[in-house]
Amino acid sequence: MPINQPSNQIKLTNVSLVRMKKGKKRYEIACYKNKVLEWRSGVETDLDNVLQIPSVFLSVSKGQTAPTQDLAKSFGAKTAVNDIILEILKKGELQVGEKERNAQLDRVHHEVVDIVAGKLVDPLSKRVYTTGMIEKALAELSAQGTHAHEPKGATSTGETTTPPTGEADSSVAANGEAKGKAKDTALPSWAGVVATRSAKSQALDAMKALIAHQPIPVSRARMRLRITCPNTILKQAVKPAQKTKSTADEADVDEEKATKGTVKDRIMSYIEQVEHQDVLGADWEVVGFVEPGAFKPLGEFVGAETKGRGRVEVLDMAVMHEAD
After folding, report:
1. I want to staple 289 with a disulfide (CB 3.0 to 4.6 A). Which of 14, 150, 222, 268 is the partner?
2. Cα 155–Cα 160–Cα 165 angle in degrees, nearest 5
3. Mapping DSSP to helix (H, G, I), strand (E, B) and coil, where does residue 76 land?
4. Residue 263 to residues 171, 281, 312: CA-CA distances in angstroms?
5. Has residue 254 got a pLDDT over 50?
6. Which tens digit of pLDDT belongs to each residue from 102-145?
7. Which own/partner pairs from 74-78 qualify as long-range (CB within 8 Å, at least 24 positions apart)?
């Protein structure tokens, strides 16, 4: 006895799905694993190596292809199937499996660790840390972040304890004050990598958390800069920066002192260690080491005070000593 099967059913296995909703219908295409991201990044250019089958589906898991009438209503009667597939491939949502998700997280994790290891050094020896030490320090921070979210009244069995009535009111008031202070003095935290953000941005968060909590002694590797400024400007007094009323109220004595002095004094205040300085013709030149966070304000100061005649050049993005 013959078995009648639907003519629009195609069985596919081991696929990555790209879904897109258009015209109240959800469409899917079946692709080879890991090929969608390669195609979107330009690594893979042959569409035949991306698609398992050049068809548009309503449901890949059921093997149900999309009727021509539905495609014409959603994408337009004159739109070719190949153009529809390209639109879904470009704009559709990629459904990632558990193994692919874990592989992507692992790849981002290693990128983050490599970036952090290349930017942080021991503050005393200026030597780099191995990726293994950085990875261990980040794991420690991640574990601390998990414990920090546990309720303070929780016991080892998971139960919570209730303070006596007399202590309750005072503890509530104390907790309110503590929460207010905690918001102001909250330190950067680290809970691990995610697949939805770039490795570079997550590496910056990881460095901030490591520097704030110091699970191992770390600091940002200093930059080596060359600053050039005309001699005629060096001895000029620093122009006071215009401040709003709010910022003026918050300014402390140190900031007021920083606005005094000459242009040369202010430039030297940014430099932690001078390698050498010299006068070359009509220009004064100094080469020294600067914290990465001071690079932008230093460049803005030199540009504003010299009106573009001075310059700040990066000689080395991260100065460090390799371990023996």
Report:
1. 222
2. 125
3. coil
4. 53, 18, 14
5. no
6. 887 888 899 999 999 988 888 888 888 899 999 999 999 988 86
7. 74/22, 74/23, 74/25, 74/27, 75/22, 75/23
